[in-house]
Design brief:
mainly alpha, Four Helix Bundle (Hemerythrin (Met), subunit A), 2 domains, three-stranded mixed β-sheet, about 55% helix, globular
Length: about 240
């Protein structure tokens, strides 16, 4: 299996399926599970949902600019995305689970349409995204938002102790795209064998590091949620 990437032409169905899976997971939560701590410092399951809701509601231009301006102030020397995340959660901290679900159900399809219809001049704008350099709004919309849902869905499954089921269709495409970016970032020869239905064998020619591990655990490592050694210490945008 060779590395593959997601682009504007094949991103839509992947994004729609991930939004559906994330929404189904939130609707399945018990009252107690909403308050379960996750691996993300200071965030329980509800805070993760508030962050995702904040992203989804940024389909409104006024809300998008509010998050950018307030997020820059809240960042206080950190990356802009960290400030935006804080604003998304703080602005919605008063919401209970039923309100979160209702607002996300309403916003998610609008956010998908917003992402898909964004015109080229806006897609070409690049935002600072340390420590990863610059990120275009086009790639943010096509790839990173979908990865964000996927990884936060994993965060919630791990928090509540329920299986994170993966398949060779949807999840494998997400993983393959992560591998592609990881390989581009370190630019070294490697052989990577990822186990499980979402995995495969990925390689770049020459003598290089060899790693074999579970596909989902690989994504946790390169997202910064678990430690990695050698080339596995190279991070990827989530």
């Amino acid at each position: 299996m060779t590395t593959a990437t997601i682009d504007r032409h094949n991103a839509r169905d992947l994004a729609e399926e991930e939004e559906r899976r994330f929404g189904d997971l939130l609707h399945s939560l018990t009252a107690e599970e909403w308050h379960t701590p996750t691996e993300l410092p200071g965030w329980d399951v509800r805070a993760v949902a508030l962050h995702v809701l904040g992203e989804a509601e940024s389909h409104r231009i006024g809300e998008l600019f509010h998050q950018l301006v307030a997020g820059r102030k809240a960042a206080k020397g950190r990356a802009l995305v960290d400030g935006i995340n804080d604003v998304q959660v703080a602005d919605r901290a008063h919401l209970g689970p039923d309100e979160i679900l209702a607002r996300l159900d309403a916003a998610a399809p609008k956010f998908l349409r917003f992402r898909q219809r964004l015109p080229w001049p806006f897609r070409a704008i690049r935002l600072p995204n340390p420590p990863f350099g610059w990120l275009s709004i086009g790639r943010l919309n096509d790839v990173v938002y979908t990865r964000d849902r996927w990884m936060h869905r994993l965060d919630i499954h791990r928090a509540i102790g329920s299986p994170f089921n993966v398949d060779a269709g949807h999840d494998r495409r997400v993983v393959a795209d992560v591998v592609a970016e990881w390989g581009q970032r370190h630019s070294q020869p490697y052989q990577l064998v990822l186990d499980g239905p979402a995995g495969g064998t990925f390689e770049r020619g020459g003598t290089g590091e060899v790693h074999q591990l579970d596909a989902v655990e690989f994504c946790r490592i390169v997202s910064g949620r678990a430690p990695g050694t050698g080339l596995l210490a190279t991070g990827v945008v989530f």
